[in-house]
Amino acid sequence: MMPHDWRPPTLTTPRLTLRPFTTADAAPLFEHARNPNVTRFTLWDAHQCIEETLAFVHDYALLRYREGTAEPYAITVTPDPRPIGACGCFWAAQPHQTMELGYWLAEPFWGQGLITEACHAVLAFSFAEYGPERMQARVIEGNHASARVLAKLGFRDEGTLRRSLFRRGKFDNVRMFSLLRDEWAAATAPAGKEARPEKRGR
Ligand SMILES: CC(C)(COP(=O)(O)OP(=O)(O)OC[C@H]1O[C@@H](n2cnc3c(N)ncnc32)[C@H](O)[C@@H]1OP(=O)(O)O)[C@@H](O)C(=O)NCCC(=O)NCCS
């Protein structure tokens, strides 16, 4: 357990500020979390009332911070403080050094590259801070925009876990994607310092 007031550090990108959630975020977040277009391919259902959004902040986000998990991050468009989505990386299997990336964005903000920008920042933070060997992401089959986001971030498609998710009364196929530590390092190496294959026979 971390001190009760531990929070993930704020991250900034050219357009966004990613910061920890507070209970004051419930009202503006509810306006987006209530949208069934947003939840079409998510594990969580569209929020029916603001209390559900408050529970997300209070019973999920703040508990994660209490564990020392830097997730979920509130996504805001600088300098507007209102949250327009969430993203972050958490341990899927710590003994195996595997983390998982998750994200969602409010519908009015789709198609501007914002989630790719946000996820790039949380990936950089999570690889640097926690050093996982593997970052994975799961996408319910049919969520083409999400698969495209992962491709833009350098993730590889590993295949489909057929009917592995029971959701809303039916089984869904789930696509598994991953990005390995050395792939991330090679993709983000400064120009002129690309990772080279190790010399052999030394
Ligand atoms: C998936 C989601 C996060 C994408 O956010 P976004 O900010 O629009 O993403 P970006 O703009 O960075 O990139 C989207 C890409 O998908 C592409 N795309 C969008 N709809 C698509 C579709 N139906 N088929 C194929 N590609 C599609 C876009 O053209 C873009 O690719 P490009 O940059 O090569 O043109 C957003 O739609 C969302 O929050 N959806 C609801 C929640 C969700 O599904 N979360 C993910 C769960 S795994």
Automatic annotation (TrEMBL):
- Determine the domain of life of the protein's source: Bacteria
The record ties this protein, via InterPro entries, to: Acyl_CoA_acyltransferase, GNAT_dom, N-acetyltransferase
UniProt domain N-acetyltransferase: residue ranges: 36-181
Q: What is its EC number?
A: 2.3.1.267
Gene Ontology CC annotation, any one? cytoplasm
Instruction: Give the SUPFAM superfamilies listed for this entry.
Output: Acyl-CoA N-acyltransferases (Nat)
- GO MF term set: protein-N-terminal-alanine acetyltransferase activity
Q: Which UniProt keywords apply?
A: Acyltransferase, Transferase
Name of the protein this chain belongs to: Ribosomal-protein-S5p-alanine acetyltransferase
> Whose protein is this, by species?
Frigoriglobus tundricola
